[in-house]
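Lab meeting, item 3. Inverse folding demo.
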């Protein structure tokens, strides 16, 4: 029924326009005189223009969208240029142009739609630029451009949606963080070394007597054949600054600062020449191995650009059901916006693997450090876990303060 009304509506308007022409012509015929015929001839051009607008196809337009840059990060200014081209230079009095894009693009902007009025006239090509002053992080999809025009009287209004698909991926913003390997001493006297020791099993430097716990593959069989005593290979030890970051994706007002902090730490670690991995815990858990290099950083930033606060369970509950696969020598950084005793108990399971564990409690601007969180900090320290509160806008000193602790 609704579709039938949409078809009949322009037909009804066309009949109304023809009726108005007939009325003015009849009035001029019966009334006569200069005024009545002047009214009729003055009305005819506008009526004919309205008829031409009715038959003019807006599908004649071709739309091209262009961005000023290929990569953006959160907080940048976006300039979008729309170019409209057509074959027939039909005079259009006005046109309302709307760029159809997901609403997430205007999350931090004063505008809610990319909509503007232009005056094409006889031009075959029209360009229009608009700006988004502060881009939000995420994936924003452009689907089409909506065109709307009409005649002088507003009798005929035409609308067309021209498909023009684009994808804009806004990477997370980051700040300069002076990353330093952990060498802090806790209140209870437990020390975390600034480097981690790994055995390079590809290079044996000697042999020693077998000790319980040595791996079967480390046994030096040639020595055993000669002396009939079990001997174990000794390997060269090398230093490692590997870090595993665990991102809590439970919904929080500080989620965007959490993503910014995570991106900043990743960039700082890789810039330092160390290796970093990421475990993103949300509705779908995603793990990235511990690696280094700009290509690996790009993969992590791509994930952080699209990540959403969609975890349905608290981090402590998730950690109870799942384990984290990582090297024993890697330090583990938990990035979260909420800490609890249950979570600290779950995290404590990983400190037994001789890894340095730090919980970064990220807070939005204006949030305070509660007495309960201070008590939890002492509770975490008693189990060899360092709890550090980081505030949005003051991430640069995060590791410097941990080091002095």
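The presenter then showed the designed sequence:
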């Amino acid at each position: 029924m609704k579709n039938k009304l949409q078809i009949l509506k322009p037909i009804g308007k066309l009949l109304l326009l023809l009726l108005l022409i007939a009325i003015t012509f009849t009035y001029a015929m019966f009334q006569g005189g200069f005024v009545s015929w002047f009214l009729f001839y003055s009305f005819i051009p506008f009526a004919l223009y309205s008829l031409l607008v009715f038959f003019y196809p807006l599908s004649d337009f071709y739309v091209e969208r262009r961005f000023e840059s290929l990569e953006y990060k959160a907080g940048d200014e976006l300039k979008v240029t729309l170019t409209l081209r057509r074959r027939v230079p039909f005079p259009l009095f006005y046109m309302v142009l709307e760029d159809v894009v997901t609403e997430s693009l205007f999350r931090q902007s004063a505008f809610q739609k990319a909509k503007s009025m232009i005056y094409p006239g006889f031009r075959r090509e029209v360009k229009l630029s608009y700006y988004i002053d502060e881009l939000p992080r995420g994936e924003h999809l452009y689907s089409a451009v909506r065109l709307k025009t009409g005649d002088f009287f507003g009798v005929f209004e035409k609308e067309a949606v021209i498909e023009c698909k684009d994808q804009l991926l806004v990477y997370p913003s980051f700040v300069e963080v002076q990353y330093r390997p952990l060498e802090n001493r806790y209140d209870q006297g437990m020390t975390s070394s600034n480097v981690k020791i790994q055995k390079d099993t590809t290079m044996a430097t000697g042999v020693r007597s077998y000790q319980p716990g040595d791996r079967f593959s480390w046994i030096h069989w040639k020595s055993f054949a000669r002396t009939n005593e079990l001997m174990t290979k000794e390997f060269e030890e090398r230093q490692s600054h590997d870090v595993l970051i665990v991102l809590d994706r439970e919904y929080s007002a500080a989620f965007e600062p959490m993503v910014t902090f995570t991106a900043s730490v990743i960039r700082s670690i890789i810039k330092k020449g160390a290796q970093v991995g990421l475990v993103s815990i949300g509705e779908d858990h995603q793990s990235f191995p511990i690696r280094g290099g700009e290509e690996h950083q790009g993969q992590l930033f791509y994930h952080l650009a699209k990540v959403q606060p969609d975890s349905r369970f608290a981090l402590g509950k998730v950690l109870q059901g799942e384990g984290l696969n990582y090297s024993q020598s890697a330090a583990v950084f938990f990035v979260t916006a909420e800490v609890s005793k249950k979570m600290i108990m779950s995290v404590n399971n990983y400190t037994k693997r001789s890894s340095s564990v730090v919980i970064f409690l990220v807070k939005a601007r204006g949030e305070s450090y509660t007495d309960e969180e201070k008590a939890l900090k002492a509770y975490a320290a008693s189990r060899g876990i360092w709890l550090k509160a980081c505030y949005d806008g003051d991430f640069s000193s995060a590791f410097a303060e941990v080091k002095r602790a």
